[in-house]
UniProtKB/TrEMBL annotation:
<dbReference type="InterPro" id="IPR027824">
    <property type="entry name" value="DUF4469"/>
</dbReference>
<feature type="domain" description="Bvu-2165-like IHF-HU-like DNA-binding">
    <location>
        <begin position="2"/>
        <end position="118"/>
    </location>
</feature>
<feature type="domain" description="DUF4469">
    <location>
        <begin position="143"/>
        <end position="217"/>
    </location>
</feature>
<dbReference type="InterPro" id="IPR049893">
    <property type="entry name" value="Bvu_2165-like_IHF-HU-DNA_bdg"/>
</dbReference>
<dbReference type="Pfam" id="PF14848">
    <property type="entry name" value="HU-DNA_bdg"/>
</dbReference>
<dbReference type="Pfam" id="PF14734">
    <property type="entry name" value="DUF4469"/>
</dbReference>
<protein>
    <submittedName>
        <fullName>DUF4469 domain-containing protein</fullName>
    </submittedName>
</protein>
Amino acid sequence: MEYYLSKNHLSKGSDNYIGRTLTIGIINKTDLIHEIAKEGTGITSYEVESIFKRLEVILPDLLQKGYSINTPLVNFSPSLRGVFNNWDDSFDSKRHSLLFKTSSGVILKRAAKETKLYKCDSRSYTIDIFSFTNHNKTPGTDILSPGSIGELRGNHLKLDESDPRQGIFLLAEDGTEYRIDVYAHNTISKQLFQIPTELNAGKYILELRSLPTHSSQLKKGRLDTPLWVL
């Protein structure tokens, strides 16, 4: 996991910094279900979806009854916010609020301790991929058509095509990486490229890798949503 340092503006008169982590994408509920029910696990997406739906009913109900919930992944507990004027004061929704707080369970705490951190040169150089467009007879923002033209829009997209470490990569679910070989437009805010013809049907993650000038740390940025070859 990458992190960068940012000036601590809350600490006046001192030259100290705070650390901030960089995320490479967002996993939503649908993506998580797909990950849990991957081929070979013996678990179906329907089963995972059913468990999620049940949890979405049971967890709020137990918390509303006043329970705290402790699991190896995450802990939940009710909490009140607001100041009570004296002993006789009571809950007033205009001045007080009930919150359900979360905290890491033992598994996430252990994962945090075991995570390797790599310092970035600067937050100012973050690869942001805003959108993908498939230029084909069946255009779309989540479809890959082998052999057709793909387009990326974003920030810090320019890369060195001659450097094998850099490029646009399509990551298959089985771990295979497909590097883009043909680029028609290679600038900071836009990429036009030919989608590889050898892609098999399935889900792919698009990742752009580049090496900033005067930096030895390879930067990576991912499209937030997965792409599919039908």
